[in-house]
Design brief:
By secondary structure, chain A is mostly helical. Helices cover 85% and strands 0% of the residues of chain A. The radius of gyration of chain A is 18 Å and the shape is globular. Chain A starts with a helix and ends with a helix. Chain B is built from 8 helices and 10 strands. The chains are: A mainly alpha, B alpha/beta.
Chain lengths: 266, 255
Amino acid sequence: MIEAFLQYVFLQRAVYSAVLASIVCGIIGTIIIEKKLVMMSGGIAHTSFGGIGMGFFLKIEPIIGALIFSVLTAIGITTVRRRTNTNSDTLIGIFWAMGMALGILFIAFTPGYPPDISSYLFGDILTVTELDLKIMIALTGLVIFVIVALFNYWKAYLFDEEFSSVIGIKTIFLEYFLFVLIALAIVALIRVVGIILVIALLTIPPAIAKLFTFDLKKMILYAIFLGIVFSFLGLWISYQFNIASGASIILLAGLTYIAAVIIKRS
Amino acid sequence: MNAIEVKDVSVYYGNLCAIRDVNLNVKEKEFLGIIGPNGAGKSTLLKVILGLIKPVSGEVRIFGKDLKETNKILGYIPQTSGFDRNFPINVLDVVLMGRLKNRLSLFHRYAKEDMEIVTDLLDKLGLSDVRDRQIGQLSGGQLQRVLIARALAIEPKIILLDEPTASIDANSRSQIYSLLKELNEEMTIVVVTHDLAAVSAYFDSIACLNKELHYHGDKELDEETVEKIYGCPVELIAHGVPHRVFKVHEEGYDD
């Protein structure tokens, strides 16, 4: 596989995007687990399918469509939740299904042969393009900068929103900011594991990391490391057996989680 | 000047009235206990004072000023059930939160002065030994002291506590009230509590809330007032509570 890596550009891109995806997952995954936003993130991911459909329909890059949709969804859910008493669970369910439906509608209206959408649904790290990689680099850089630069505030906000608000921290601003970051992170991950599987890559590495540390910073770093291991091994399995990379990465991560829980218990 | 002035405050959740036309003046360095049955709006009132809940009508003034103009005057000690005890954060980091400035600054680091203040507080509250421990590994009493330390790290003039002794043993309970009594020499303290025994032993004054504020004044309550607030026979409330809380109390009051 090493010679192949040196020889083929698509494999190099796959490796780079695996590393980037792991960094994003370690950071954002830890946050969504601690803030209990897992379903919310699943909702944003699925709604972005509408954007991918729109991309095909309008003949723009589908990933840009996904970016627009997921950011708007994140802002939409936060705003509606603040303005009304609607349970965010219900809202997420509505956005989730509507986004998927829109995507299917857009694709149905797109003239010509239906495009291959399975790589967006399930991810295919081996087909990552130059543009995808550039978008991932930009989004990952942004996520790292925002989280590192405001780390103490994020920690306070995540741990105790009420207290943060009492000492005058603008928690509403942080909330919107965080939801937009989650949306960006999801877009960065779609090419690697796909809309349907993204939630697993976001939650499994931090969930394993949480078994072994009580420190937020360490939890993030462990999760990044685990993410890299899973995606490299998953990539290798996918390359060797010619199966979808998303599925092999997720199954590997999931089985490791189960094993880690059993080991920790005994 | 009053430390806290609550004027005609009403709060509704949808159509549900939480508190109605509450007026309350808290003097500087008063040690006030707010009591009342479950669902009486005690926590709501506290959150209105803190600016966490916007009242439908009325206003709150802190040392004569609007809440927005005051900064770092209020220290808040929430109920321990209000956050996730499994959150990956240690004692030191929780207390340091109290030193955060309200304006976001990039790459914020705690200053040496912040560190010194927090270290002193941990010493004072007997938490130095557990400063690196994750908060889920603490006893109820320790966790409560961590939250008090965090509020004190703000260097506030008023501290507000929500059910500080709800889930801790008798020993830690008296420890916490002695600590509050000591702090009371320098600051105003408002405690929302069910703990009528503590009220009699430590507090200066008492406010009785059941949607409306029924009483505010001397801590020695008569049965009639308590009955009015709780809306049920006194005996139910007096159950398990030392009798000296009530000025007039007859044994075997039954109804």
